[in-house]
Every structure is written in structure tokens, then in C-alpha cells.
Amino acid sequence: PTGHHQQCSSEKIKSAALSFLPILTWLPSYPIKEYLFGDIVSGLSTGVMQLPQGLAYAMLAAVPPVYGLYASFYPVVLYTFFGTSKHVSIGTFAVISLMIGGVVVREAPDSMFMLQANGTNSSVPSLIDTEARDARRVHLAVALTSLVGINQLLLGLLRFGFVAIYLTEPLVRGFTTAASVHVFVSQLKYLFCVKTRRFSGPLSVVYSLIAVLKDITSTNITALILGLTCIVFLYGVKDVNERFKAKLPLPIPGEIIVIVSTGVSYGMSLFENYQVDIVGTIPSGLLLPAAPDFSVLPNLVTDSIAIAIVGFSMDISLAKIFALKYGYSVDGNQELIALGLCNFIGSFFHTFAVTCSMSRSLVQESTGGKTQIAGFLASLVVLLVVVAIGFIFQPLPQTVLAAIIMVNLVGMFKQMRDIPLLWKTSKLELAIWLVAFVSSVLLGLDYGLLVSIGFAIVTVIYRTQSPKSMILGHIPNTGMYCDVDEYQESIECTGIKIFHLNASIYFANSDLYINTLKQKVRYDVLYLTLKKHTVVRLVLLDVQGNGQVTESQTESDSEETHFLRTLCAVHSIILDFTPVNFIDSVGAKAIKSVIKEYAAVDVHVFIAGCSRTLLDELRTLLFFSGPVTPDIVFPTVHDAVLHCQHRRPRPSSTVV
Amino acid sequence: PTGHHQQCSSEKIKSAALSFLPILTWLPSYPIKEYLFGDIVSGLSTGVMQLPQGLAYAMLAAVPPVYGLYASFYPVVLYTFFGTSKHVSIGTFAVISLMIGGVVVREAPDSMFMLQANGTNSSVPSLIDTEARDARRVHLAVALTSLVGINQLLLGLLRFGFVAIYLTEPLVRGFTTAASVHVFVSQLKYLFCVKTRRFSGPLSVVYSLIAVLKDITSTNITALILGLTCIVFLYGVKDVNERFKAKLPLPIPGEIIVIVSTGVSYGMSLFENYQVDIVGTIPSGLLLPAAPDFSVLPNLVTDSIAIAIVGFSMDISLAKIFALKYGYSVDGNQELIALGLCNFIGSFFHTFAVTCSMSRSLVQESTGGKTQIAGFLASLVVLLVVVAIGFIFQPLPQTVLAAIIMVNLVGMFKQMRDIPLLWKTSKLELAIWLVAFVSSVLLGLDYGLLVSIGFAIVTVIYRTQSPKSMILGHIPNTGMYCDVDEYQESIECTGIKIFHLNASIYFANSDLYINTLKQKVRYDVLYLTLKKHTVVRLVLLDVQGNGQVTESQTESDSEETHFLRTLCAVHSIILDFTPVNFIDSVGAKAIKSVIKEYAAVDVHVFIAGCSRTLLDELRTLLFFSGPVTPDIVFPTVHDAVLHCQHRRPRPSSTVV
């Protein structure tokens, strides 16, 4: 056995190593002939997309463009080793970049870097020490990324991958649509080439929009025309790609517009002659690694948690879609570890936080990417540009990047179509979608995410609290019991009421259970008080005040008598516990007290269809004591009914 | 029919009036002979308790003592008209008073009323303009009370009485125990007669305790001895009352100590000779009504919501206990309206927020109180003191009031016994208790309440996510199916797996459902990939990475083959949907995709025991489309099994 044990533990270590470094499981058996061509084509296509997206998203993250290229290289290489999804394209992503940008601008606003205070003379814009500002912002973005990585790594090591389940689909879609709104609004200033300050925090979308509209008169017409041309071109290419998906061997790379517009910008000297903002300095080569500046961390903790979770949820939701499509599985915890390492190690090489981008991933998959090799090759394309020819992008107008970002958002905005669809299928999920969207647009992405997760959780409570109740009747010649209101065939058993409510019984709905039971069994406080010989009129008024038996309010005297007679005839109540999945002490107490209440007027209550688990719970809660014995529990409703029928019904109570 | 209709609406108006003014329902038929004596005795006893409690709780609320007497008079009279509980004693209450005091001191701290700045010379305490300070604090307390009343009134009119259901018993008990800790700590300074400032907000308990301990050397020994004597006396009386409950006609009124100690204090001139703090000026007569100062409201909104909810939850939980005991019903919404009117109208007469007090209510009930008349008489006792003999309480030492408050807390502290009890019955509810206690002690009562409600809601999610799964087997000669691991008699049907998981299927546990299903059916991605002719080794490694079928890790080759053979034999899977109470789109998609997944390998999935409601939900979610037809749904597990057995099992798949 010792040998076996040793073998076991060595196998365990091996399996742990394999699960930590998934590349060891797939690379040794990589089928070169089958896969390599697809991976190369896909890698090149994705790499071409990484370039403009990296530059553009760096603008969102409020750092100089070249840092977007770094972020499109290092983490992508790392993911090849640690990632479990074969099809997602890791790298810069609009939403995450925007979140980083918000934090960075909050911590290092322009106002901190004024060279001269021109408070009184507002027509002359005060000069900003952009170099110091950008250096500070890079510091902040890198430190934040480091923290995001640590968060993701910790969550992964603590096996917290399951948190993604709280991010239900309507929530994620509403949230990402809201994120697109943020991204779209943030790009308007680049499209119009107007200089407005950047806002963050609640209502920042509204402030940004107002700021752009106020300054709309200072629009640079050249930039706007160039931007709009790009949008039309890119949208056209996108459309063609989708329409002729089957006929095209590869999607047409719309990103070619970057090369063209860079050429135009250089040729026409757009910056010098037309004041069109361009990308500007792109230093060649890589920077030496350096430890992030941890002194700024305390302010960034909450932001980093939000970014870590959003990044992970984007990654895992896309990874799962591909895994399902191609029949392999992804591991949430390992994905967290992979993303954590990408961001943490990356941050030492001056990257900002990454996750997978939906647009790139779709291209990587559709161009024939089979494994992580495609992502690796894409990163090599980026590396080539960074070390050799980055400088040629310097004259690229910012408005072109804004156009690329905006067109990439089209897919996200199409999620708006969820609204009519969800209206038809599930109002509650529509509510989740709308809450996620509205709160994320108005409160900002971090608070929005928090509010919408809270709301999604509350909807579950709401569902358990809005159950359907019914009285069951016997379907003759079977052992089945169905809702008497729904099925004509079902017949109520004389003197027996079978009550069914499809919910568990716990604090938030035990009152509901008891009230519905009493209403349905039409056997309320009314009768109990009658037994105590109080005046009928008084009792009826009390009941009305309580609002529970208001139906009886306008009943005539004869109806009242009939009603009472029906009540007296019931000698047994069976509670169908089949839908009860759990019970807590409040629920157990409520059921117990209702059993006692009915026992006081000679009505016996039985419990049917109680699962083994539930029975154990009831025992632990000391439910069976006093008049409540385990004898009242029956495996099925039919057993309970047979028991009631064979029991000699006791003589009706002595009232009247 | 018009006449009938008119009659109906006039009856409706009448019933609305009756439900708004419950006194109209019970006073006309008040059985004087039976009830009046009990009500008088009970009213006098409760009135005697209202006096010292009013004085003491005014100290907690940081307003002059006489305002506690006002709060023990006006709201009590109002409750007689609007309240639905016959046994609760409305008036000042420690927890609420403490919450008011916290807000009042935060908004009008001593430091705002310094007469001279003695910052450098700390040995001489700076003088405080107590008159201005107290006037300001009364203003604040009254405005806050007005707002609390408006909140409660609105909640009641909007029929929000149901919110009380979220205040589950363990939560309320943990919370009130924490409140007792706050009250106890706040009284220490009066018991020791040391002058420390008052703290509010998170960790205020800790700060207060430290402040008292630091100043412990300046304890006034006379006051301490007097206080301890009172504590011992009051505790003794309480103990005797409980021990000889059956033999005593009336509980001994321990509050007599107030008279005695007032006499002692007056006779020995404790204030002048021993510097013992006394109650001080109690003006005779009532103040003219005045509108609260609404200018201070904006700062108090969130506090007022917390106080409104805590006040209501105290009232309704106690009212329900008595209603259950005496067989009448209380209406949550009307109680909210009653409390709202007590506080709102009361605030015009300079009262601070009230609710029912547990100690007084128990006395009111045990001394024979039958209706709200008892409370009304108690208020008359208070009125008598206010207008005629209030001044005689002026020499009453504050340490005696502290002693009364502390001894009244004994019952609350006994709730600590819940901990071992809950440990045995329900760990989850113990967690709610402890979270409510710890968070309310450390974060303060407002944030503590918020955190604990949030936690209680999350436990429900947790419960739905920690279900029990099982494979069902047939019990021969019955139509019943039970857990094969629990019941030896149950036999698995050849080729059919019946899966049961007692939870609803929604976003937070749909993954769990699918994973457990695959684990239990032992028919994982493994086999699916095998069908696709990939190398077995690779697949096994993949599966390990995923962590789902790790059992197979150390299996030998022959075991593996056997395992695969068993898998191939399964031709049908039946999902027992009896415990599924609701499903959302994420759940429906998950089930649909698993059905398709199995269909790809010729395994048919059926759904059994699906309720009518659930079927409707599935239809709305467009579940039935493509290969998934309503034919796969069966009313019971047995029907589904019979169908599977009569279907000619398809030839086993072509693998191996």
C-alpha cells in the first residue's frame, strides 16, 4: 500500500503541475499537420487586429499608445502557457481599459499638472505638463494592473472561480451594453477632435456628453470627416464579412484603414496643417522590467477588485461559449490563475490590465485558430511592430482609432435587441438586464456591477416568494394528485384538503405559506375564535381588518352558515412537501404552530412527500416534539390520503 | 345591482375606517366587568415603569429627562386609538433611544457649544453651554422623530408591512443582543459617574469603553456604590418575581427604588456633598405644540429610515408573539401606520421616537392587561407626574437610572443562550445570529442592520446552491423511486439513470446542476470526446485538468474499460423535476444544451414530475424547439421509466 500511496501522491503532483501549466497537456501532442496552418493564418489576422486595438485602448486607459502594444504582447505570451481556452484572444479590451482610465484620471487629473494657473483668463487654456502627467498615469495603471493580477491569482488559488455564476447572462449583457455606452461617449471627443476634460465616477457619461456638446463648435472638421469616412468604411467591411461569411476564405481585414490613413496623415501633414490630433511618439524597442510602484496601492484596492471580476467574467463567459462549441472544457479557477499571472507578471513589463476581447476572439476562431498557438503568433506580430516599425504609426490620427473602437462596439450595441426578446420570455430577467444597464451607465461600471449583482440575488428571493399555491385533487384510478382548478378530472377527497405551494419554507416566506394555506383551506382565525364563543360580528370585522378573508365580507347570512358548515366538515389537511427543498427554524416553527392551531379544533395535519434531507433538517430543528410526531409524515400524498380515509373520522366539533 | 353596488362601496368605506381606527372595532363591545379590573392594575403597573424608563432613556437619547416623560405620554395615548396589538406597551425603548442619541450627538456634539477654548490647558475642562446644546439636541431629536413617523406612515400606506419578514428571528435576536451591548456600554459612564464624551458611528462601542476605562480613576465612589446597590436590589426583585411568579398576585415593583433613592439623594444632598450627578431640572406642565424644525432634515434621512425599520420590527415581532398566544391577529401595515402616527403627531408635542419595550410589555401582559385601555391608563399615570409632581424626581441620581437600564437588559443578554442552541439546530442560522451581533456591535446599529439583512438574504442563495443530489432507484412493486445510496430496497433500472437534485435551476446553480448530473451519471466529456476518435490519454488528462472525473485518475486500464462499458450501456437519463420550483433562461439553456449533448451520443434525456407552472415557464423561455420537444416530459418518474423500457433500446454506439 505504501508504494501505491507514493504512486498516488506523485501522480497528484503531476496532475497539479499539469493543471497549473495546461500547455504541458496539449503541446506534446500538438497535431502539426492538422492544426499549424490554421493557427498561423489565425495568428496573423489576430495580430493585425491587436495593433490598432492596442493603440486605441491605450487612449481609453489614459496612457501613451505604446503601452497598448506592450499590453498586446507580454500577457498574450503568458496566456499561451497558463490558459485553458483554445480560442479566446487575450489582450487589451475596451471595458477594462476604460475602467483603468477612469481610475488613473481620478488619481492623476490634469489639474495636478498645470504649469501655469490661468484661472481668471479662461480663454487661454492653461498648459499641462503632459510628460509628468503621462509618467504618473503609467505608474498608476501599472500598479493597478499588478493589484488586479494579485486579486485574480488569489481568487484562483482559493478556488473562487465559481463567483462567475452570479454573473448571470442578462446581467453580463446589460453590463457590457452599458460599458459600450461609456466607451462610445468617451470616444466622441476624439472623433470630433475637441478638447474636454475626462470625467469619472457616477454620472460621468452625462458630464462627458454635456462637455462634448458644449464644445461642439470647436470641432475639427477635417478630423470629423476622416473619422466618419473610417466608420463608414469599417462598418461596410464588417457588413460584407458577415454577409459573405460562407464565400470568403478569410474575413477582409478592415484594419488596413490604419495603414491608409497613416499614409494620408503623413502625406498631407494633417497634424501640422489641419491640427488633427495624432498618435504621436511611439518609441521603438521594449522597456526594461521594473517593479510597480506599490506606494499608490491603498487608493486602488476597491477599483482593482471590480476590474479583476469584470475581466474574469468577460473571459470565462466567452471561453465557455467556445468550449461548448468545440467540446472541450475550461477551468474557471485555472482561468483566474492565468489571467492573474498575465496581469501580475505583465505589470512588471509596464502593461495595463487585459482580458479577452470579443471582437478579436471571434476573428481568431473564424480564421481557423485551433489552439493557444494562434494567440502566441499574434503576439509575435505585435512584438515585431514594437521593436522594429512602431514609429511608422506616429502620424496615425486619433480620430481613426476612435472610429475603429466605435465600429467594434456595434456588436455590443446589438445586445439592445435582448430587450424585446426578454420582454416575451422573462420579465424578471429583463429587469436584471435593465437594472444592470441603467445602473452601470449612470453609476459607473464598478458601482453598477455591485448594484446589479445585488439585484440579481434579490430576484431569486423574489422568485421563492412568489410561488403558486393549489389544492390538489385525486385523479381517479391513479395515485396522482393534481390542481383541482387546472384539471377537471381531479376530485377533492371528502373532508381532506391537500395543500401544495411550490416553494421552500424559510423566514422570508413562512408567513406566506401559512396565510395561503389558511386562505386556501378557508379555515381561518374566524373559526378558531368562533370556538371561543365570541360574538360573530366582532370576529368578522377583525378578519376584515386583517385583510385575509375579505371574500366573506359581503356574504349573506345563509352563505356564512354554509361556509362554516364546509369548514367544519374538513377533518384532515395534507401538506404536500414535495416542492419543499429546505426549511429553516422560522419555517419549522410556523408549520408546527399551524399544526397545533388546527389540532386545537380537531383537524389533523399530515405532511407528505417529505424528502429524506428535509426530514433530517426537521429533526435537527427539533420539529418533532409534543403533539407533532414523526407519525404525521408520509412518503407520498396518496399514502397520506389512504391513512386519513381509513382513520375513523372523529365526530364533528361541538359548535352550532 | 346598483343598490347592491352602493351597499358594497359604503361597506368598503366602513371597513377601511375600521381598519384605520381599530379602536372602533373593540371599544364598543368592551366587556367592562371582565376586562376593566385587569386593565386598571396592569395600567398602573406599566405606568410606574414608564416613569423611570422615560427618564433613563431620555439620557440615552441625549435630551433632558422631561422629554422622556413626554414620549411616555402622547404616543401611548395615540396608540390606544390606532394600534392593533392589545398587549404591547408603546413608549420609550432603549435601542431606539440610543440610535436617536447617536444621531443627535453626531449632529450637535459638545464641541459645537464650547464657551471658551482651552485647547492648551487640558486639565481644566472647557465649559459647555449646556442650555444651547440641549435645546439644539431636542430640536434634532424631534425633527428626526417626525421623519421616522413619516417613514413609517408611508411604508404603512404603501402596504410595506411585509418587509418585516426579512427580519428573521436569529437576525432580530442577534441584533437586539448587540443593541444591549451598546446600551450597556453607554451606561457605564453614568454608573461610574465619569465624564467622557459620547461616540457614534462604527467602533463607537470600543471607543466608549476605552474612554471610560481611561477615566476610571476619576470614578465617583458614592455614585458607584449607590448604582451597584440598586443593581443588586433590582436584580434580586426580578429574580424573586420570576421564581414566585405563580404565588405572587402582582410582581413586586422594583421601581420603588427610584422613590427611595430620590429620598436618600435629597436627604443626604448627594449632588452638593458628593458630586453625584442627578437628573436635575424637571419643569412641571406640558409644552405648547410646535412644528418640528424641518431645516435639519436632509442630514437625518438615512438615520430615520434605519430607526423606522428597527422600531417597527421590534413592535411587530413582540405583537405577533402576543397575538399568537391570545389568538387574535395583528396587521403589520396598520401597526406601521399606528407607529407612524405616534411618532409624527408626537413630534409636534416634543417627543422622541418610540416603539414597544419588551420589559414593559411583559409586565403589562403578566399583570392582567387585556386591551389597549391598559396602555392608556399607564399614560395617565405619566401625565399626572408631568403636570403635578415631576419636580420631586429632580434629586434622583443618574447612576440609579443607569442601574435600572442595565438590569432591564438582563433579558436581552440571556439571548446569548441562542448560540449553543443554534449550534445544535442550524449552523446557518447561527451564522446569521453571529453576523447580526458582531456587525451591529462593531459597525453600529444602522450599518449592522443593513449588513445582517444582506447576509440573511445571501444565506437563502447559499441554501439553493447546496442541494443534495441522488440517483433514484425503483422500489419493487410500487411506483416509488428512492435514493439508491440510502434505501437498500431501491434498484436502479438497467440502462436508465434517474437524477434528482433538490433545488430550482437558475443562474447561480445551473452549472452545479449540470456538473452534478454528469458526475452522478458518470458520463462525462470523456465519452463525448472518445466518440470523436481522439487519443484516450489526452482526453484523460484534459478531464483531470477540469477536475470533474478525478476518480478515474488512478484507475487501471481494465477498470477504465469496464467504466466505459457501463457508460455505453446507459441509453436514457430521466431528470426528476419534482423539486424544481422555478427555472430561468440560464437554467433552461443549460438543460437544453445537456439534452443536445447527450442526444449526440444517442442517450435520450427525459423530464419527469414537471409541475404545470414550470412547464409554462419552460414554454415562455422557448425551451421546446429543435430536438427538444414536449414529448420528453412525463408527469411522474414512473411514467418516464415505463416509456424508456418499452422503447426498443437502440443498438449500443459504435465505439470500441
UniProtKB/TrEMBL annotation, chains A, B:
Key word Transmembrane helix present: yes
Source species, domain of life: Eukaryota
Domain STAS as annotated: residue spans: 486-644
Subcellular compartments: Membrane
One GO location term (cellular component): membrane
Keyword Signal: no
A molecular function (GO) term: secondary active sulfate transmembrane transporter activity
Membrane topology: Multi-pass membrane protein
NCBIfam families: sulP
This protein's name: STAS domain-containing protein
Annotated organism of origin: Denticeps clupeoides
Gene: SLC26A5
